[in-house]
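Intended use. Records like the one below are meant for learning the mapping from a protein sequence to its folded structure. Do not use them to infer anything beyond what is encoded.
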Amino acid sequence: MDEEPVKMHGELYRGHWQPPKCVTEFDVNARLTFTSIKAHEYYDREDVLNEKVELLAELIRGSNNCMAYTGAGISTAAGIDDYATKSKEKSVTAEARPSVRDWKQARPTKAHHVMTSLHRSGHLKHWIQQNHDSLPQKAGYPQHALNEIHGSLHDPANSVVPYEGQLRDDLYAWLQKWEIENDLCLALGTSLSGFNADRVVETAFQRCQQGLSAGLVIVNLQQTPYDEHSSLRIFSKIDTVMELLAVKLGLSFPGQDYVHVPEVAPDAKLQQDVFLVPFDEFGDPSQEKTVWDLRQGKAVKLTGGPYAGDIGRIVGKNEDGHYRIRFEDSLHPTFK
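Structure written out for the chain above:
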């Protein structure tokens, strides 16, 4: 790579770091719109990568409100295609990549598991997820600290936002809150090519300039428009970086075959598939608890999101024990 050091390494670069090497050439734009950056893929040299991840660990240890902002690149190792990688079979992400016909059956990557460990250890406070795959939850990451800003394939109350669609008001407000409250932003596997949610990385840079934040860390195989604004820039696979980071921080994480089973308090489970939850009939947190009956054939109602008011029926569970719900006769005008 022939660029200014700050574009290759970030503001915290050390003078002896060698440039990243190009491992795959794709002389086409990473995205059709918003950017003219080519889709070439780069690796940091092994010694440089090790030093960069050591520095990343130091930044995380010194942070009080570390936040992650992730794109499709964090899930490619799970077999889910991203948008910016070209000629998929030639990409370095193709190596040992599982074949997944249905996104809903994908398993979490090492990165998802390490992110969960980071949260449990108190290092990662919040995660803004652009993907729709629910892999963070499958790794055990808690929903209360996860903003699925572009929607979810698994949550009918948070439908997937179309390419030029409108973000959900409450999730956008939540994004804006953490945009200001974080003191270190980790941008992982995202091309940062013009989505509204990308404002979080712009603000991270600006707050760093004001001395209010440690700034922005970008981990991505391809170049991005924000590389020169980063405190630290790492060129590598996300799984490689996160596995190395776990070692630096002394964190453990489960293997790829791990299936997360949520912990349910003994007094919250009344019988099989019947629970007592601290929410009222409108879906709001409440001191008074409500019986939540998820037995096959029982009806459930969406209380939030664009499909609020829709009635669904439990039709069973999948092989991982996740509930399957069928919705018909939607109140949403799109489906009337």
